[in-house]
Request: fold
Amino acid sequence: MRERTELDEAIASIKRIEQDLADAVDLIDLGEAEGDQEVVNEGEETIRALSVEAARRQVETLLSGEADANDTFLEVHSGAGGTESQDWALMLMRMYTRWAERRGFKVEMLELTDGEEAGIKSATLQIKGHNAYGWTKTESGVHRLVRISPFDSAARRHTSFASVWVYPVVDDRIQIDIKESDCRVDTFRASGAGGQHINKTDSAVRITHIPTNIVVSCQSERSQHKNRATAWNMLRARLYELELKKREEKASAEAASKTDIGWGHQLRSYVLQPYQLVKDLRTGVTSGTPSDVLDGEIDPFLEAALAQRVYGGGGDVEDID
Reply:
């Protein structure tokens, strides 16, 4: 039923665009016949708006991967640099949260480790919505921030790093078998807000998959049982994402595994001083308004990265033919 609903919506939107385009062309013809420039302008404005919508719909056709329609887990980890990098990790977490909210997605915090003075050391979000994983899957990598540090009394410019890792939520149709003997399960006391109970019991759960060294943790629930169940789901999702990566590498002969996510492999740079610029180092897409990007306006970067993954090369979505 979900697939049927998605197909119905897609077909209806295409038919509506076709009808609106025909109406706009008729309106322009009418305006030209009567010499009414305002009517012509109205028709042309409608066509421009339809062009933008058609381009957006075109990008959505790129989201045809095996797990693209699924919900997604998104992890943010601060890099070396103490408070400065931890504050940057918090800014990134907020950016993705704002982006998801703009799209009408639901965001749930699964794990949060606060920094010593400010910011966060790590966080895990679950973003729920159609194509949540498909839209965010190209965001895995290292993000670099250049700014005048608010934590430096000498007002010097600092460069900070944080890494993002995105993997799909695995639904019930996909079976992932995990040997419990391959895993180490640790419980610990949760940190952060949550009342007296969450801070007085070992309710948080961390699972380490020894063969792959994948580590997941959850502390969002008061119950250790619920946190354990969520952590197992996260591990299944990580192992599934790893398998998807292997298949993609085999098909495209491109190395895209997590081992490539290091401080020498920046995905995007955000420069706040001495000039204002956000640049994606893979696609060349830029923005001169970092404040808007950090407030969640990252669609141009996501669209270009998706287009590059499917078609190769850089360029904006309008370059797709």
